[in-house]
Structures are given as structure tokens and as C-alpha cells.
């Protein structure tokens, strides 16, 4: 009897398409925020929950997916995730108010929270070591293409039809993913292991939701309540992780300083990616008076460059090692980000596009290689926990970045004489804050490479 084998490239593509659809919607919806604010009568701080709640659900689902991967076949898990995603996009296509829109985003978050760790699990378990950088680049490419076309896709549909169509047009894409996945992923037998640590999952839910609500309400005395909830969640999760025989996620790999450094740098890059995708489309519409289509189109060149560089940078890592592509990438990203921050004071559309392209060249070289390098610091037996930590914190970092920049901009808008001046200053302060984080991790990564050399 012929042994069933997974078709690696097709399986990565199938799971990547699901992740692609999730990121596409995420970036496509960013250009609709001014429209949603008017349609539903909500504030900048409220509308960001379209992105934040989606990322929050992913952050909670990824650790749960780590358990599901040990107790459910890849084929069944893939099928369930795909069906939930289709249900989510149909819900949002039919959404007639803001809460229904958020419900659809929650369902999409559940699906993407399964698809992302599933994709990286397949890469790390089934790809040969000499191809790991290339395959990680391919996996990252599927999700990196989405920010390239997402804002333009969202801008065109919002201007020509309605934001609802951002969702329904993705049904054929999800069906393609379903067909590819069912062909590529056989029903391989598994040895079920472990039991679900519901207390840890509760702790994570309290930690992430409390932290994000606190950031959204910061400045109000009521923000003390979600802050306390977040701290309680952290205590519960940490206690379970350190005192339970079979924790939801083992934290022992965080004792590895090299793993921590690459993880931190990766999360800061995620901060920047989500922060700029919130700031620029809204800035172009509010300050420059452009429509959603132009706001989306101006993000296209930079995101395309970043996406195309993902597999190339992975191949560079396989051939030359991680030091050059990562350090060069972080340096270029810092230069481009500095340019963007300065240009916002006297904005010219082409100047914003150029700054974004330069920054994305750097991200293209560094982003996926940081994850590959971080995972290379740990033993194969710890890949499940490492994969979970990277993907969980990646989504949480994106949600935190969106909440922080929205809060900064919203605060400054409320304390300036007019909306335009408030948006300009608020956007500059948000980008400056993220620039400081980028410079700090550049130094940390450089020092880590120096330590490894010695």
C-alpha cells in the first residue's frame, strides 16, 4: 500500500491562501475607516476594533491551535478553518450594523488563528532543513502579497460599490484554497497527546482583551478596570505555564536569549507593518482629501516590493546566513521610516509612497528571516511552542500597534484646533514612537550577532 505523503508546496499554498485572505481583508478595511466612521457614527478609537478584535481572536486562537494540531488531523483542521472563514465573510457581506461586522471579523479571526500555525507547522515539520528559509519565505509571501493589494482592493470596491463587497469577492479564493488543501493534505494518522489547559486559555483571553481595552481607553479612569483584568490574566497564564505538567504553551524556550532577541525584533517589525497600514490610508484621506481608492493605491508599490523580497531574502538566508539580510533590512527600514515621519509634516503623496517603498525594502529583507532565525535557536522538539509564541505574539503585537497609533492620533485630534492639524501631529507622534522601538531592536539584534560571532 502506497504511503500517504503531504504535497509540501501545495499544502503551504493552500493554508497560505487562507492567511492571505485574512490579511487582505485586514488591510483592505483600513482604507474604509473614514467611511465606516460616517456610516455608523463612531469614533476613530472605536472603528479600529474592526482590526483589533480580529487580531485579538487570532492571538487567543493560535495557542489553542497548538493543542488542536496535536489532537486533530491536519486535513480535518484545515477543512474546519476554511468553512469558518467562509461563514465569516458571508456574515460581513450581510452586515447592516457595526456589531454584526465585528461578529464576522471574530469568525475570520478564529479561522486565521488556525491557518497561520497550521501553515508554519507544515513548513517546520515537513520541509528539509536546507530549504527551510526558502519555504518560510514562500509562506510569508502568501501573507505578504495581501498588504500589497489589500488597500487598493478595498479602495476600489469601497469607491465603486460598497465595503461589503470586500468580503464576498473572496469566496472563490477560499474555495480554491479548500480544493488545493484537500488534494495536498492527506488524512495522516496522529498520536493524540495532552489535554486542553482551559485555565491557561482563559488567562490569555483576559490578558489580551484587558490590555487592548486598556490601550483603547487610556486617559480615562475607567481604563483601570481592563488594566486590572489584563494583569489578572497574566498572573493566571504564567502560573499555569510554570506549574502545570502539560501547559497550553511552554515558556521555557524564552530562557534562550537569542530566541528572545529575534522574537522581539520580529514583533517590532509587526508593530510597524500594522501601524503604518492604519496611519497612512487615514492620513491620505483626512489630510490630503483623497478618496479610499487613492489611499489604497498609494500603499501598493511598497507592499508589493516587501512581498516579492520575502522569498528572495529567505534564499539569501539559506545561502549566506541570517546576519547580512537582517541587519541590512532593519537599517533600510529605519531610514525609510524616518523619511516617512518627516514627510508627514509637509505631505506630498509621491513622497509618502517613496518613503513607504524604502521602508518596505528593509522589511522584505528582515521580516521572515527574523522568525526563521529565532526558530533556528531552539530544538526541534520545541518547534510547536516556538511556532505558537511567534504567531500568538505576532497577532497581539499587531492589535497593540493598531490600538496604540489609533489612541495617539485620536488623543491629539481631540486636543487640536482642527481635525487636519490633529491628524498630522498625531500621525507624526505615532510614527516617531515606533521608530524608537525599531532603533532599539536594531541595536539588540546587532549585539546578538556579535555575541554569536565571539
TrEMBL record:
Residues 7-453 form the Major facilitator superfamily (MFS) profile domain. It comes from the Bacteria. Its main location: membrane. InterPro entries: MFS, MFS_dom. The keyword Transport applies. It is a multi-pass membrane protein. Pfam families: MFS_1. It is found in: Cell membrane. Keywords: Membrane, Transmembrane, Transmembrane helix, Transport. Coiled coil: none annotated. The keyword Membrane applies. The chain crosses the membrane at residues 7-29, 49-69, 76-96, 102-124, 136-156, 162-184, 196-215, 221-238, 259-280, 292-314, 326-344, 350-368, 389-412, 424-446. This is MFS transporter. It comes from Enterococcus alishanensis.
Amino acid at each position: 500500500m502506497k504511503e500517504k505523503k503531504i504535497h509540501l508546496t501545495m499544502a503551504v499554498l493552500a493554508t497560505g491562501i487562507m492567511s492571505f485572505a485574512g490579511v487582505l481583508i485586514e488591510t483592505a478595511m483600513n482604507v474604509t475607516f473614514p467611511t465606516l466612521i460616517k456610516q455608523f457614527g463612531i469614533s476613530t478609537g472605536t472603528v479600529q476594533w474592526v482590526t483589533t478584535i480580529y487580531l485579538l481572536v487570532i492571538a487567543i486562537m493560535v495557542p489553542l491551535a497548538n493543542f488542536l494540531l496535536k489532537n486533530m488531523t491536519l486535513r480535518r483542521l484545515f477543512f474546519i478553518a476554511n468553512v469558518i472563514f467562509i461563514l465569516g465573510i458571508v456574515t460581513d457581506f450581510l452586515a447592516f450594523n457595526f456589531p454584526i461586522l465585528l461578529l464576522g471579523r471574530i469568525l475570520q479571526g478564529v479561522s486565521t488563528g488556525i491557518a497561520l500555525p497550521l501553515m508554519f507547522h507544515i513548513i517546520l515539520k515537513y520541509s528539509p532543513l536546507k530549504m527551510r528559509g526558502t519555504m518560510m519565505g514562500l509562506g510569508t509571501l502568501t501573507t505578504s502579497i495581501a498588504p500589497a493589494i489589500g488597500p487598493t482592493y478595498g479602495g476600489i470596491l469601497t469607491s465603486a460599490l460598497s465595503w461589503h463587497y470586500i468580503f464576498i469577492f473572496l469566496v472563490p479564493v477560499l474555495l480554491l484554497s479548500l480544493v488545493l488543501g484537500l488534494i495536498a493534505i492527506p488524512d495522516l494518522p496522529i498520536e493524540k497527546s495532552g489535554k486542553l489547559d482551559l485555565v491557561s486559555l482563559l488567562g490569555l483571553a483576559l490578558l489580551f482583551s484587558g490590555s487592548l481595552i486598556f490601550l483603547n481607553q487610556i486617559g480615562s479612569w475607567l481604563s483601570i478596570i481592563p488594566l486590572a483584568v489584563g494583569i489578572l490574566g497574566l498572573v493566571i497564564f504564567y502560573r499555569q505555564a510554570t506549574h502545570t505538567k502539560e501547559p497550553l504553551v511552554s515558556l521555557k524556550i524564552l530562557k534562550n536569549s537569542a530566541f528572545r532577541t529575534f522574537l522581539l525584533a520580529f514583533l517590532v517589525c509587526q508593530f510597524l507593518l500594522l501601524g503604518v497600514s492604519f496611519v497612512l490610508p487615514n492620513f491620505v484621506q483626512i489630510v490630503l482629501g483623497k478618496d479610499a481608492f487613492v489611499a489604497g493605491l498609494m500603499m501598493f508599490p511598497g507592499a508589493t516590493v516587501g512581498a516579492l523580497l520575502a522569498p528572495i531574502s529567505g534564499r539569501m538566508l539559506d545561502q549566506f546566513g541570517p546576519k547580512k539580510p537582517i541587519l541590512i533590512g532593519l537599517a533600510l527600514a529605519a531610514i525609510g521610516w524616518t523619511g516617512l515621519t518627516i514627510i508627514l509634516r509637509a505631505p506630498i503623496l509621491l513622497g509618502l509612497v517613496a518613503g513607504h517603498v524604502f521602508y518596505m525594502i528593509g522589511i522584505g529583507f528582515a521580516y521572515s528571516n527574523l522568525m526563521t532565525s529565532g526558530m533556528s535557536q531552539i530544538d526541534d522538539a520545541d518547534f510547536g511552542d516556538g511556532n505558537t509564541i511567534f504567531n500568538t505574539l505576532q497577532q497581539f503585537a499587531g492589535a497593540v500597534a493598531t490600538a496604540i497609533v489609533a489612541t495617539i492620533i485620536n488623543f491629539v485630534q481631540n486636543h487640536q484646533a482642527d481635525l487636519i492639524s490633529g491628524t498630522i501631529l498625531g500621525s507624526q507622534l505615532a510614527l516617531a514612537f515606533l521608530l524608537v522601538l525599531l532603533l532599539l531592536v536594531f541595536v539588540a539584534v546587532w549585539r546578538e550577532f556579535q555575541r554569536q560571532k565571539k
